[in-house]
Amino acid sequence: RILSVSFSPSTHHFPIYICEIDQGSSTRHPAVVRTGDIFVQVSNFLNTHYGLKYLLQSMNIKLNSGQIVLIGGDLLVMALVTLAGFATHQELGTAPLPRILAVFLPMVAAWLAILPFSRVYELELASQARYLWRPVWAMVLCMPFAMWLRAAWLNGTVLPLFVLVMAGTSALGILVWRAAFVWLGRIGKSPWTKSS
User: Could you give the CA distance from residue 4 to residue 17 in angstroms, rounded to a whole number?
Assistant: First the structure.
């Protein structure tokens, strides 16, 4: 049996339904989802090429060069924000990898969860300065959920101040990166602005 994730088109691809699919059959059996299993399921799902392709198709995302650059840049911003946080507390060289991932992966998961509503990968919008508020606001909105996922992972509590700091630094980072993306498009130094 294969674990898969599908989205309800009648509700803008939400909520997420996790099912077991019998090999060689289209029969789907809803599986019980526990909070502690979410990260395992998301990890397995994203590590499967077919699953990632299905996710993108479900969200009506057809990847082109510009969107690939946007996704890579957004992930890099989240990684840098995560590392900067540990560096600020002088823990970058001593913090174990699972603890670092406990910040980074929930950010990515929350970012994915808000994609159907944020439209941050629509190239027509992402290439215009007047829509820079979209990724910034999306980052602010997804951060409380990200920090809740982190707290659930670590069996800890959500600290409001930590949420505010992470939301502010992540929003600033995404703003700088997305502004650079717009600027590169305007000066014609990006391949996604050239006619095919």
Answer: 8
